[in-house]
Structures are given as structure tokens and as C-alpha cells.
């Protein structure tokens, strides 16, 4: 079983820590565990090079003092620079236990290894220049920069920038990932995100999207037992073809395609002209509707036929606009939970831009999923997958080369293949997002959507 890394908001993490402390684990013990984990990371990445730890006035700074003490005990050349004196009792005790000198952050000279222990998840308002400017200078001059829990200046729950935040080499998340580790623009500043176990049990429905574990075909399987996908497109036939080929390469046994005639894919994709008749086939396991489909009268008829057929649905592109016109709430009445794959513009068209003060992309996706009773794949540089029951998966940062035409059609085809092979709606969406990102990683730079489909087989092999 592949372990998914949990994601907690700042409040969720505080509550988890308080539960542990009520079970007679002191706050000093938690800080020592965190500091030890930071020292271990700095030691491993530092390779014996000098370390500078920038400490703030709160508990994040306390973690930094503890890390300095443990690094010094290992023989590391470590210095501490402080923004201000500690303000919490536990941070003061950590500062007292550090018997080395403490420099002024503003005047500190750079070191090859920089550890940011200024604010972490504790910051809720814009940083003062007395903190952000020295931090930027020290990170820029370092060879490797490590943030404790979060780079200082990021809003934990929304991923917003509360100050100009430099890009770090790595971030060590304590106990669980936080939304800012995976939501943009914060995620870009975090670098590689590592997770330290500090002995705080967490229970959450929010996770990072992880490599799925998928079954391989058995000796009794054939093309119809492996899942049949029906792709309904039109208008832009290339989009439907991309989706169909993606579904095949993601493991579907059979694909029926409406809205794209001829081409090399016709050798394996059975094209159809009569959508209602195709939908009446009981062997259809999932229907993808929308790639390249214009939101016109014909498209409306096709969507109504797909909704009436009762098969598990994946709605993309043109189908999203059409379902927005007739009301997304009707999706809640379908016999099988649907999956919607909107990008930012389509999401606003479906669910409006009604203000949700302080809401994150996670909050908006969850509200949308609850409203329509469907799984939402809110695409983008920080793809968020949300289900009506509160489950959330956030994809790690993926290739920026996915910002090209047709890659969304590929993603929709992969998700449809996962759904056709028996995964529930949330699991299918999560698996599809991971496979899509892995295919992009394998494709390297400057790929086009057709290249992406070719890499899906290798990505799928990682999950068997």
C-alpha cells in the first residue's frame, strides 16, 4: 500500500499537537523532536559545510535553536542569527539551552547552508522588511537553503505570498504537509518538500496525490472486462482522438469514439455515429463527454443522452459549459458520481466568482463538489481534487510544459480509463492526475499532447 502524505491546515495541526500534549508529551519534547529533524536534514544536505540558522521570536525560532544545538553536538560549524528575542516560554528555554553566540539577523554574513527558522506556519500578516530583506539576501548567497515547516512569508492555508519570498532548495514539513506546500504561488517557493515525523498522529481526509496501486490484467481478462470507455466529442476531432488514445494507453480495454472519423486510431478505436445506441450498450463502463465539443444544440442533445444513460461520467471542455447552462446541481441525482475537470476559467463559469473571504483553492473546490454532488478536478499548476464527502487530494507541482493545447484532453481520457476499470470517482480522478503528471515528467521538455499519450504506458507500469 502506497502511503499518502497527509495535509493539514494550521488549525488542524495545532489541534493535533494539543491532543499529543494532553497525552503527556510536553511542548518542549515536541520542539526537541522538530529541532532534531531539522538538524538531521541540515547535516545530510550540508555535507559538513557551515550552517547559518535564522531564528525568529516564536516557536519556529525555538526549533531553530534546538537544531543549532544538535548540529553543534555533531561537530557542525553552526551559527545563529536572530530577528528578535524569543517571546514564548518554550522558545526562551530553547534559546537558553543554546550556548553559542547569537548574531543580529540584519548584520549576519551568509553561509553555504541557510536554515529559515523565522516564522514558518505562524505568520498571518505581511512580513516586515527587517525580516524579508535579510532572509532574501541570505538565501540568495547560500548554496542550499532549508525552510522549517514553511518558508517565512507564506500564508499556510491559502498559499498566498505575504511578502517577497525567495525560492528555497527544500522545505521540511513538520508532522504533515500544509496546503501552502502544494498550492501556488507558495509551492513554487518551497523547493523539494520533505516530511518529518515528530510523533504527532494525524487523521485527515486531505492528502497529497500519490502514485496509485493498480491491478494488472489477469489471464481471464479481455478487452471488455478491462473497461470500455466511450468518448463523445465533435467540432475539434483531434481533441476526442487524444482522449481516446490516452484512455487506451492508461489501460482501458476498449474505446468507442464519437466525433472523430478515420485516422490511424481507427484501427483500434471503434468510431460510432449513433450516440444513443452506443450508450445503450451495457458493456460501457465510463463515458467521457466534451473534448472538442462545441456548446451548441447538438452538444446539448449529446449531453442529455449521456446524462440519461446512467453510466459513470467524466465531463470536460464543452460539456462543462453546457452543464453550467442547465445547472450543475442536477449531477447529484445521477446513479453514479460524475467527475468534472474544469480549469480556472471553466470553474468560474460553472460556479461563479462569488467571494469567499479568505478561501483557498481547496475551500472553493470542496464547496463546488458539495454543490453538484460530483468530484471536482480543479486543474492548474496546483491541481486540487475534491469530493462531496470532504476528501481532498492535491497534486505535487508538475511540468510547466503541460501548458499546451491538448494536455487537458489527455488527462480527461486517463481519468475515464481509471473510472472504467472500476475505481470510484475520487480514486479515478486522483490516479488520473498522478499518471498524467508522471507521463509529463517522462516526456521531458518541449513535448506536445501526442507525446504525452506515448508516455502513459511507462507511467502506468509504475503503478502495477
Explain the overall architecture.
With 464 residues, this protein is an alpha/beta fold. The chain has two domains: 10-208, YjeF N-terminal domain (Rossmann fold, 3-Layer(aba) Sandwich), CATH 3.40.50; 228-461, UDP-N-acetylmuramoyl-L-alanine:D-glutamate ligase (3-Layer(aba) Sandwich). The protein has 15 helices and 17 strands. It has helices at residues 10-22, 27-46, 59-73, 89-97, 129-141, 186-190, 237-249, 275-279, 297-309, 318-326, 344-351, 361-372, 407-420, 425-443, 449-461, and strands at residues 51-55, 78-82, 102-104, 113-117, 144-148, 170-174, 192-196, 206-208, 228-232, 254-258, 270-271, 284-289, 313-315, 339-340, 375-378, 384-386, 392-394. A ten-stranded mixed beta sheet has the order 8-17-16-15-14-13-12-9-10-11, with helices on both faces. The longest helix is centred in the first third of the chain and has 20 residues, at 27-46. It is elongated. Belongs to the NnrD/CARKD family. Residues 13-206 form the YjeF N-terminal domain. Its EC number is 4.2.1.136, 5.1.99.6. K(+) binds at residues 60, 116, 152. Its cofactor is K(+); Mg(2+).
Amino acid at each position: 500500500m502506497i502511503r499518502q502524505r497527509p495535509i493539514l491546515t494550521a488549525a488542524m495541526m495545532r489541534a493535533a499537537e494539543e491532543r499529543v500534549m494532553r497525552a503527556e508529551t510536553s511542548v518542549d519534547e515536541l520542539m526537541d523532536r522538530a529541532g532534531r529533524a531539522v538538524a538531521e536534514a541540515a547535516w545530510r544536505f550540508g555535507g559538513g559545510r557551515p550552517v547559518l540558522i535564522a531564528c525568529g521570536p516564536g516557536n519556529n525560532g525555538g526549533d531553530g535553536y534546538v537544531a543549532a544545538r544538535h548540529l553543534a553536538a555533531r561537530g557542525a560549524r553552526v551559527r545563529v542569527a536572530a530577528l528578535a528575542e524569543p517571546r514564548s516560554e518554550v522558545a526562551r528555554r530553547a534559546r537558553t539551552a543554546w550556548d553559542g553566540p547569537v548574531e543580529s539577523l540584519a548584520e549576519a554574513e551568509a553561509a553555504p547552508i541557510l536554515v529559515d527558522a523565522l516564522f514558518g506556519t505562524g505568520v498571518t500578516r505581511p512580513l516586515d522588511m527587517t525580516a524579508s530583506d535579510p532572509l532574501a539576501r541570505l538565501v540568495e548567497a547560500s548554496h542550499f537553503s532549508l525552510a522549517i515547516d514553511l518558508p517565512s512569508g507564506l500564508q499556510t492555508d491559502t498559499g498566498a505570498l505575504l511578502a517577497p519570498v525567495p525560492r528555497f532548495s527544500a522545505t521540511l514539513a513538520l508532522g504533515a504537509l500544509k496546503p501552502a506546500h502544494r498550492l501556488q504561488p507558495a509551492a513554487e517557493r518551497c523547493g523539494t518538500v520533505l516530511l518529518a515525523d515528530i510523533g504527532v498522529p494525524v487523521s485527515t481526509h486531505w492528502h497529497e496525490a500519490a502514485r496509485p496501486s493498480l491491478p494488472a490484467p489477469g489471464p481471464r481478462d479481455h478487452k471488455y472486462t478491462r473497461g470500455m470507455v466511450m468518448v463523445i466529442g465533435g467540432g475539434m476531432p483531434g481533441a476526442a482522438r487524444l482522449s481516446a488514445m490516452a484512455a487506451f494507453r492508461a489501460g482501458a480495454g476498449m474505446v468507442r469514439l464519437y466525433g472523430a472519423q478515420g485516422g490511424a486510431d481507427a484501427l483500434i478505436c471503434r468510431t460510432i455515429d449513433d450516440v444513443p445506441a452506443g450508450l445503450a450498450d451495457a458493456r460501457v463502463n465510463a463515458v467521457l463527454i466534451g473534448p472538442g465539443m462545441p456548446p451548441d444544440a447538438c452538444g446539448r442533445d449529446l449531453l442529455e443522452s449521456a446524462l440519461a444513460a446512467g453510466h459513470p461520467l467524466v465531463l470536460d471542455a464543452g460539456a462543462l459549459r453546457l452543464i453550467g447552462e442547465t445547472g450543475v446541481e442536477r449531477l447529484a441525482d445521477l446513479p453514479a458520481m460524475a467527475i468534472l475537470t474544469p480549469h480556472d476559467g471553466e470553474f468560474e463559469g460553472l460556479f461563479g466568482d462569488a467571494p469567499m473571504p479568505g478561501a483557498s483553492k481547496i475551500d472553493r473546490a470542496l464547496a463546488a463538489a458539495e454543490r453538484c454532488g460530483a468530484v471536482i478536478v480543479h486543474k492548474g499548476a496546483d491541481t486540487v481534487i475534491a469530493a462531496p464527502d470532504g476528501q481532498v487530494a492535491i497534486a505535487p507541482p508538475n511540468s510547466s510544459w503541460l501548458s499546451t493545447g491538448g494536455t487537458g484532453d489527455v488527462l480527461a481520457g486517463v481519468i475515464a480509463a481509471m473510472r472504467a476499470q472500476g475505481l470510484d470517482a475520487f480514486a479515478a480522478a486522483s490516479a488520473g492526475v498522478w499518471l498524467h503528471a508522471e507521463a509529463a515528467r517522462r516526456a521531458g521538455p518541449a513535448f506536445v499532447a501526442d507525446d504525452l499519450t506515448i508516455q502513459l504506458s511507462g507511467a502506468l507500469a509504475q503503478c502495477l
